[in-house]
Amino acid sequence: MLNENDTTLSKLYEESFKSINEGDIIKGKIVSINPKEVLVDVGFKSEGAISLFEFPNPQELKVGKEIEVYVESKEDDNGMIVLSHEKAEKLKGWDRITKSFKEGDLVEGRLKTKVKGGFFVDIFGIDAFLPASLSSFKGVPDKEIVNKIFKFQILKVNNLRKSLIVSRKDALHKEKEETKTKLWQDLKIGEIRCGFVKGIADFGAFIDLGGVDGLLHITDMSWSRISHPSEILAIGDKIEVMVLTIDKDTTKVSLGLKQRSPDPWQDIETKFPIGSRLKGKIVNILNYGVFVELEKGIEGLIHISEISWQKRISDPKELFAIGDIMEVSILNIDKDSRRISLSIKQLEANPWLEAKDKYPLGVKVSGKVKGFADYGVFVELDDNIEGMIHISDISWTKKVSHPQDVFKKGQKIEVVVLSVDADNSRISLGYKQLLPNPWTQIAEEFPVNSILDAEVISITSFGVFVKLKDGLEGLIYSQEIDKEALEKLKPLDYIQVKVIKVDVEQAKIGLSAKL
């Protein structure tokens, strides 16, 4: 039996240790480490052994290091206190989860391993279950996700079982919405933002700014002319753009790329003085003129009327090709409208200034038929100046329906100069004037009231044209022929007519079939 002194010593020995209860989480110090376990001193009468497998990073352990442990039992069969580091970490983690997070919150976790139906995720030491349908990892190799840190949304917390169900899919959606909300709050007009080309259309490109899509219109891509956004952008490209406008009500953002560089029109008058000559590249050709790029972002138009002093240009594409380098002269600059008028013909002396002296009225000149219009024929003279024969100046006596009935393109002919308008670059020419005006003689040959046989040429709504002799036509007015007789007539028929009018000035003969 213990005597009174022994009992007192035993009591004092027991009291010298910490007050430890099963289920407590306490601190202990590592006293030794072997290949299977770690011995920890918690200030109790015995040390506790913890399996090395309870430490995720055993290489970080060292003697003297202080760790937290969970008291499972104060004494086992060998008289040692039973401790667990893993349970301590899990209880601490669970306590942290329940105090700091709730269902719907985002939390970081390490994806531990793949299991049937999903994955286990380490969140503060707790094995949370991530269902495969909510993982967003379909088709992703395990090596790219295992032991990697991701954000998850807490879907369900079971306090009784101390278990969690989480979702990566919902976390991504929530992150995206939070990012989008923050981005809308932070977006400012005029700031530069980095984004990725998400889609391309004819009118522009859609840029993902990191949760918010903006439109980069084709007109805001470059100061230079481009036909399609794909000329400078491709899907997936990373670009920096300027925020031009923000409409939070319609969730629309317009972006600019060209605005990141200086506006080349800023000092346009200084760079390109009126009258200066310079070279440029043809970038577009339309039926009304040619667009020439003078430098990146600066284009001017050579109107069709400024191509040549002499030639009548109908289609610039016959003379120029896109990519051609040519010299031009600056005619005018409209900075507000961003328009520059250019000229080629101003590079040469104006031949029309000498035209009046070179082509006096009434002079006969040679020329070549260059083209036709319904109202006349264009003739190129010796020095490439073009004049026009009006359809009324082709024949004294014959009705000409179209100039091509008389002339052929490329035909060399003689003409008479009728008038010169140097200011408007026009010369009027005559073909019938090569011969004397026969109408005084015609008036004598076909006096009023004379009756003769005529050959029907054509029948119109206002009358019948007939041939009186070779090269001479007359008109039977519709009111001067019986309806029944008119209905029977056809070309090449002969009809008897009476001269009722001879107009020498207008070069016309009026006829009647009512004798």
Show the helix and strand layout.
Layout: H1 4-15, E1 25-33, E2 37-41, E3 48-51, E4 66-73, E5 82-84, H2 85-100, E6 106-115, E7 118-123, E8 126-131, E9 149-158, E10 163-167, H3 168-186, E11 192-201, E12 204-208, E13 213-217, E14 238-247, E15 252-256, H4 268-271, E16 277-286, E17 289-295, E18 298-303, E19 325-334, E20 339-343, H5 355-358, E21 364-373, E22 376-380, E23 386-390, E24 412-421, E25 426-430, H6 439-445, E26 451-459, E27 463-469, E28 472-477, H7 483-488, E29 494-503, E30 508-512
Parallel strand pairs: 13-15, 18-20, 23-25, 28-30
Antiparallel strand pairs: 1-2, 1-4, 2-3, 4-5, 6-7, 6-9, 7-8, 9-10, 11-12, 11-14, 12-13, 14-15, 16-17, 16-19, 17-18, 19-20, 21-22, 21-24, 22-23, 24-25, 26-27, 26-29, 27-28, 29-30
